[in-house]
Amino acid sequence: MSSENEQDSGKTPLRIFVDANTFVSGLLFEGNEATLIRLGAVGLCRLATTPYVLDEVTGALSAAEFQLSDDEISVLLSYVNRCVRVYENPSADELREDLTRLNDKKDLHVLVAFKKLECDMLVTGDKELLRKVPDAKRTKQALEILLLRSAHE
Predict the structure, then answer these.
(1) Which domains are delineated in the chain?
(2) What are phi and psi of 42, to 5 degrees?
(3) Which of 1, 3, 24, 152, by CA, is between 20 and 30 Å from 14?
(4) What are the E-state strand segments in the chain?
């Protein structure tokens, strides 16, 4: 769907905050996560993330288990940057406001960025985020929502 079609339908694409685990899966394996990233690339949804999440992605892609060269990692990150809009990280004050909401403090950034950006949903595989954030979805659920939404246009 092009920007022109978005305007014609009267609906703006859903804004989806994407967590690092979703990006890593989508970049390395074919499946729902790869489909979501492609949908973001063509504008059927608006993917959002932060530099903090992209740093996590870079770290994960650099893991020895994936055996990726620096050039391969660079190509994958370049692709992600074409598919997603990167917003600034939440401030330390913003993070402090929600400090007690999650047990796993490294996921606090994702929760706060998602809230701050007012995205329609958070796509993650993190069990605690899925349990504690009402608009958190697994990738398959997000794709089903996107499919239903496009069928009603």
Answers:
(1) 15-146 (3.40.50.1010)
(2) -95, 0
(3) 24
(4) 15-18, 46-49, 84-86, 121-123, 136-137
Q: Which helix (H) or strand (E) element contains residue 42? A: none
The residues, any chain, with a CB within 8 Å of residue 24's CB and separated by 6 or more, are: 57, 60, 61
pLDDT digits (tens, 9 = 90+) for 50-97: 999 999 999 999 999 999 999 999 999 999 999 999 999 999 999 888
Region at 121 (left for phi over 0; alpha for psi -120 to 50; beta for the rest): beta
Q: What is the DSSP letter of 65?
A: G
Q: Are 17 and 139 in contact (CB under 8 A)?
A: no
| 31 three-state secondary structure | coil
Per DSSP, the residues of 91-114 read PHHHHHHTTTS-SSGGGHHHHHHH
pTM given for the model: 0.87
How deeply is 23 buried, as exposed, middle or buried, from its count of CB atoms within 10 A (0-12, 13-18, 19+)?
buried
Sign of CA dihedral 60, 61, 67, 70: negative
**Tens of pLDDT, residues 84-109:** 999 999 999 998 888 777 777 788 89
